[in-house]
Queue: 3 jobs
Job 1
Amino acid sequence: MLTRRSLRIKVLQTIYACQQNSSMSEEGTQRLFQKSINDVYRLFLYQILIITEVARYVTEDKRKRARKHLVTEEDKALSTRIWDNKIVQAIVNDEGFQQKIKAEKLNYLVETDMVKTLYKMLVKTPEYKAYVSKEAPKTKDDKQILKILFRNVMQASELYGDYLDDHFTNWMDDDQTIESAIISMILNFKAPSENAPILALKKVRDWDEKVQFGKELLQLTLKHKEDLIALITPQLQNWELDRVSQIDVILLQLALSELLYFPTIPVKVSINEYIDVSKSYSTPKSKDFINGILDKLMNSLKEEGRITKLGRGLVGF
């Protein structure tokens, strides 16, 4: 679920928030970072919950139609196949998933009117109509309709986006990360065995390893802040440090931390990553500024023998 890029952004945001609050301790900064990471997983769980709730709503629709004074043939023929979807049933019947939802109190964030709106959007799609018309849909059909529900309905709904805005701060920063994780969960679904819960109910295999990367990047950048600033300042030439974008200074510090303290990450990977992040989180001119400064620093640090790379970090070194 987490990528190193998304973790770099989380560290950037954490340091920036810390600098806006001069009274925040290093321990408080670490807690803030951990909360931002936990929020990603919480949002991941919530979006899966909404998928199942939209699927569940067809049973409510069926009940409402059955209580009508004049029940039509269309009412009688309403298919509940989306609720019987193999992936949906695997999720709702998994005790671990329900425990996580309860622990995070996510059920309280499910709004019936929103679920109903998403359901109505879904049933109008041609893909849904084709899905319920099949005599015996295969697992690939179950996967496809959930992709449609998530991408073409939930992510396309302004109402749903507004609801996420209200309950998940800065959720758009994690949108691509979550989308990738949920689509991966759907596409890689296999019927769970007794000893193998579905992918939705566990953090992906490299979660802890990648979170550790983020923690170390944050810790080392804060620990060596003065040294990093001392390396950056001479490279600014006609730029005064206090006139450079605060975000750019943080990005330079993070990039330098990786060059100096992360021997298995290739130099070019670090530089290219922070140039790319600057395109989304800083000014239009930042990418060229950061590229120029890092290029100078990389060359001087190499000449001084201060950059040491091992294993994969030697690629392109």
Job 2
Amino acid sequence: MESLFDQPKEPVKPQPVSKRKEQQEKIYTVSQVTSLIKMCLENTLPGRLTISGEISGWRKHSSGHCYLDIKDENAIIPTVMWKSDFAKLKFKPENGLAILVKGYVDIYPPQGKYQFYAETMQPAGVGSLQLAFEQMKNKLQAEGLFNEEHKRELPKYPFRIGIMTSKSGAALHDIVDSIRNRWPVAKLLFYDVPVQGQGAAERIAIAIRDVNKRNNVLKLDILIVGRGGGSMEDLWAFNEEPVARAIFGSKIPVISAVGHEVDVTIADMVADARASTPTKAGVIVVPDIDEVFRQLDNVAKRIKSDTDSLLNLSSQKLKTILAAAAFRNPKVIIQNRQQRLDEFENKISDSTKTVISNLNHLLHTFFEEILKIEPHKLLADRKIALNNLQNRCAGAERKILHVFDLKLTECASRLGGLNPKSVLGRGYSITRNKRTSTIIKSVNDVEDSEVIVTEFANENMIESRVVKK
């Protein structure tokens, strides 16, 4: 395209000096110059441009609009991406990422600069969906959502199974047929959700949380979430963050059954178990009823064999016990025990008599010793000594109280002399500032018109107001 800046110009004819002076030079406003530059850009540049470069200075405003710079080794272009265009991106732009952006160049009049308005954006060298997958995988892995310690154990014999997929897809029939063929005793509960398209991820996440909220009534043992095969775009709902977090927060064990063998989604990594196909989900979630019956038969046979062996062994033990002397003549054991009981009774009786006799002898000996001591004379001497001690204590107490009484009288006299109010009886008075309750010692302690209180003897007081100092 031929540039407007390269148009041939007509030669300017020289004008007489007098005419040039008569012409007046045209003056442009800033807005007019900006409009001229804007028209030049619009008429010169293509309507849409695709630019390759590297993201720098990425920032997302609270309004949802995004601002960044696209740069290479020699230049930099300020760029804007509106909220509506940014919402269509599957990956998260970040500084240093090589990208291809498509949009147009225009002037931003308030700042008098040109900038690029990006309408679409994709990573350079890798698909946007693949990059978004890797970004989401790294983010959730760093948070520990894939860790094995968070995986719930699958029930061995589930009887109430939830299936969450689209009713129009083949995955539903594959899952149901697989479970019915292996475990027909299970009760299946179906929850219809969209599995692709705009808003599918949010609908799946809401459905998972709803099932968990109502599971006290539903009583599901396990939940299968999935769909049949398709392109990466078709399976994308199972790579979005709302679904991953809903599966992680589910109290019901979740099996992810999405796509084919080669398809691996974020939901597969977060779920408690992954089924490579919807059909395999039935194999993982339920046992084979024929195998269970075979196991039950084997267990029944082992129980019967173990029971027969235990009965035979117990029968032999019983015969041995019955052949013992105790069972041939059981009264002998009782009679021997009775005889030993009589012997014990005699020994206890003899021992009791001996102990009582010894105690009587000891008591008699102590009584004789007490009589030798003559306790009545000992008590009389102790009573006399106690009376003398009481008399001495009473005299000492009176002396001490007299000394303290004298000291108390002396202290009271001294305190009376130091009492500042003792002089009030001799015609003196004490004056206080009523507002501050402080004693007025000089004219500076009170102001004009303030109320003062004068105290006389016997707590008599008068109030007065200062008229003049």
Job 3
Amino acid sequence: MAKRRVTLEDVARRAGVSKVTVSNILNNRPTAVPISEATRQRVLAVVQELGYYPNAVARALARQRTDTIAIVLQFPAIFQGWSGFTNELMHGVADKAIELGYDILMHTRQQPDARAEALALMDGRVDGALLLRDYDDPLSGMLAERNFPHVLFFTRSPRNDVSWVDCDNLAGARLAVEHLIRLGHRRIAHLAGPMSACSGRDRLQGYRQTMEAYGLEVHPEWVLPAPFGGADLTPFAQLLQSPQRPTAVFAWSDEVAVRVLNLAKELGLTVPDDLAVVGFDSTQICEHTDPPLTSVRQPIYQMAADALEILVDLITEKRTQPITRVYAPGLDIRGSCGASQAGERYV
């Protein structure tokens, strides 16, 4: 037979005090009548003697708070890959969670539909959620209709009752393409992200707008899908072997850009002499590629930390109205474009 769990009442009875007194001592809670040091030490001795530990579930029910936040990505498998982007994101969230006294739950169990996902998030285990979902994903709307605290990060919402933080991806794409044009490139390809994601869609739009603004033709065959790091780049490899191949490429993410560096080497092309490459995110991997990767910088760490702080304000009702923030990108110039001013930053 399993041993019965020691309760707060057991401690109070053995120490000869009330349950409230035990609770006040364990939580270091101030009281109208100060608790004597002798009583405090007696209660703590009984706690150690009986092996009592608080029931977190019961405490959460009493407080109506768990001090736990869920992180929900579009595809839970992203946690397994642990890219430079994911690493920076989790670093920012974790540091801010530690600062504010919150635990993090990585939501990895996929539900059959958005309704089931919403119900799973609202089952009492977490106080709120950070969501990185597709632009038209219905989960955020369902949570908003039920007044469940959540913040979208690295994406946006069409609703005016949802908080979100995102980078100005249009401006970031413009920085990348303008840099390549300044270096003399006219045949610039784009490896595009998923069109269901704000980032992929906006970076493609920024590429198109910048090319057109400079009077450069956007060849349809030079815009190829590469929605994740492991995407099939065979069509791009074929393009690089064509007579009128592009001399530069703007990849929607660092992961894809690193694949391009490796692909170019396999094809006997030299970066940046034969092909200039620009990525997006400017994560730590950019300093360790050969050559180092020029990349658009978005403040991933700060955006993730700010998103969590906004969420905590919503949970604690310090903030009652939704908030949206757009962060300015920059460009970290390294060796993959052949720029003489490698190491310079555009902001």
